[in-house]
Amino acid sequence: MKRTLILGDTGLPKRSNDLLEVSNRIYDGKKHESWLLAFSPDQENLPEGFERIILVQDEGNICEDARYICAIIMDLHSTYAFDAILIPGTWIGRMVAPRLAKRLQVGLVAEINDVKTRDDALEFVRTAYSGNILSGIAITSSPPIILSIKPGIFTWEQKSGVNTIIQNYTKKLQSPSSLTCLKRKQRSVSYDIRDSKVLVSGGGGAKRAYPLLETLAKALGGEVSVSRKLVDQGIANRTIQVGQSGKIVNPRLYIAIGIDGAIQHVEGLRNVETILSVNTHSDAPICSISDVVVVGDAKIFIEKLLQRIALENEGTIHDQYRGESE
Amino acid sequence: MVLNPDDECALSFAFKLKEQHPESLIHVVSMAPSSVVPHMHDLLRLPVDRGTLISDPLFAGSDTYATSEVLGTYLKSQEFDVILSGSRSLDGATSQIPGQIAQMLGFDHMLDITDIDVGRTSRTDAVFSIEGEKETTTWSMQLPGVLSLARSSTCKLPYPSYADLQKDVSDKLTILTNKELGIDSTHIGLEGSLTKVVHTYEANSRIREKTVVEADDEGIEFVFSYLKERGFV
Questions:
Q1: Domain A198-323: assigned CATH number
Q2: Which positions in chain B touch A321 (Cβ < 8 Å)?
Q3: By C-alpha distance, which of B116, B187, B181 is closest to B155?
């Protein structure tokens, strides 16, 4: 039976099972086993859906040590011979995957966002040329298939229960790495809108509602950005301005509140996945590039949406992983 | 043709390190078609000591695996204290080459570095920090190693002086082909690649099915469900 190893997402351990969907797509729903390599210290935080979870007790910075992780995967692979190894496209994953592919002398398709089958051959899809083109890529080397997966694209839904065997990885490998973490500092106010996965963005029409933008951004696990108008009026700092004289952003979700959508602003939105705009005029330029247009007042929209989100969270156990951006 | 902003950051940190350690030499290495020679000349008019352009039609079609094979083979023959690179290229942005080179050379590698503490960086150790989503971490790493920089607005390259604009810098540039590198031809170009683009699709994301709603209860319910389906709430 085919066997896939998935490297756990250390930032969002519970969401590691989203990569099960990639494994399902590779084996076209046929029976196969999926194993997880996890660094979670507590067993309650482990995701469902895996036949086996190999648990590494992380006493130091193993989960941030690409060479150590590679060494563990190589050790496991020599015993269990995986047919596919799937790595999340996170900061650490993006360091592990290329090393591993080089060690195993196999091809690597990085940060895929789709799996297709064409003439019985697998094709892994990723964006190319700054996101303007999608490439379908075949791997010509022999197995294992190594892929890194763009976070937040695939979602897994449990269909039937799986009995998970938890296996502790007790071998103490000597990490070849010389990396030492000297200091950790929580980031407070500083964020870079170019890294944001969700942006709640305000323009001239959101002046009155400006303090509420942050509340909505928080509720959606995102950050606040603005159009030039709010910067020129001294309401917001230029560091969070979107557009030609500001920053080019590529969040998954961009909520444009009270923004007209001048060409210079739209220029900063070329790579945005979903645009939702709120405007008193349904013929504002921003509306023509939006997936959803809400016609109405900015403040009323934000207050009503916040109430609806609060209602959803009431009485349900809020899954904190859902709320975080990946 | 533009210099990738990530690479620009790498080069600007090289200049900062040279300011701190004036005896150090900066060597720019690129694998590209010979059409980039004028761009290499532009870099060599800055405080760059030497340039190497690895260029051969035999390398055409190399995927990241074959590309790192070429660059890694060349770098194995060189002496240096640190390799600085960008974190992501401008086109594919796969971040594969620096990690694969580090693997080939047996070095440590760190991605998405936002700052190098040049004052605390010596020939044997580098100190640098990474601004993550939730925290800023500061690291030390033994050298030689590979440090990959992420773009930041503070990384700006100096302009060459007016006198240097017309300067002939061609003697600082070495152009190498596979004749000098001597890599087995089955390991380079299309033949040495382990991945192959078999299809391309247009990512025309701006043609969208637009839904228009009012900011009333019905409209808010639609927006809420829309966001929930996509995992935002």
A1: 3.40.50.1220
A2: none
A3: B116
Return residues 127-146 of B near A (CB < 8 Å). Answer: 127, 129-142, 145
Whole-number Å distance between alpha carbons of A106 and A110: 13
What pLDDT score does A188 carry?
A: 53
Q: Which of B1, B9, B2 is nearest to B155 (CA)?
A: B9
Three-state DSSP at A25 gives helix
Range(s) of the domain holding residue B40: 5-192
The burial class, CB within 10 Å (0-12 / 13-18 / 19+), for A269 is buried
Alpha helices in A105-253, H assignment, sequence order: 210-219, 228-232
Whether the predicted model's global pTM rises above the 0.90 cut:
no
Spatial contact of B178 and B58, defined as CB atoms under 8 Å apart: yes
Chain B residues 26-55 with a CB less than 8 Å from chain A: none
Question: Is the separation of the CB atoms in A111 and A128 below 8 Å?
Answer: no
Residues A323/A221, Cβ–Cβ less than 8 Å = yes
- Which residues does residue B85 pair with via DSSP β-bridges, in sequence order? B148
Mean pLDDT of A230-251: 78
User: What ipTM was assigned to the predicted interfaces of this complex?
Assistant: 0.86
pLDDT tens digits along A268-289: 787 788 999 999 998 888 988 8
Helix-then-strand count for chain A, H and E: 8, 16
Amino acid at A198: V
Residue B93 in this model has a pLDDT that exceeds 90: no
CB contact under 8 A, B196 and A291: no
| Cβ–Cβ gap A134/B202 under 8 Å | yes
Quick check: is B106 in a domain?
Answer: yes
Measured between beta carbons, which residues in chain B are less than 8 angstroms from residue A288?
Answer: 210
**A63 or A279: whose pLDDT is higher?**
A279
Distance from C-alpha of A48 to C-alpha of B141, rounded to nearest angstrom = 36
Chain A residues whose beta carbon lies within 8 Å of the beta carbon of residue B110: 95, 179
For A105, counting Cβ atoms within 10 Å of its Cβ (0-12 exposed, 13-18 middle, 19+ buried), the class is exposed
**DSSP element (H, E) containing A137:** strand A133-139
Q: A296 CB near a chain B CB, below 8 Å?
A: yes
Flag whether B64 is in a domain: yes
Q: Say which residues have a Cβ less than 8 Å from residue A52's Cβ, sequence separation at least 6.
A: A33, A35, A36, A164, A165, A166, A167
Q: Which residue in A135, A157, A200, A257 has the most chain B C-beta atoms within 10 A of its own C-beta, making it the best mutation to test that interface?
A: A135
CATH 3.40.50.620 fits A2-169, yes or no: yes
Is residue A119 exposed (0-12), middle (13-18) or buried (19+ Cβ within 10 Å)?
A: exposed
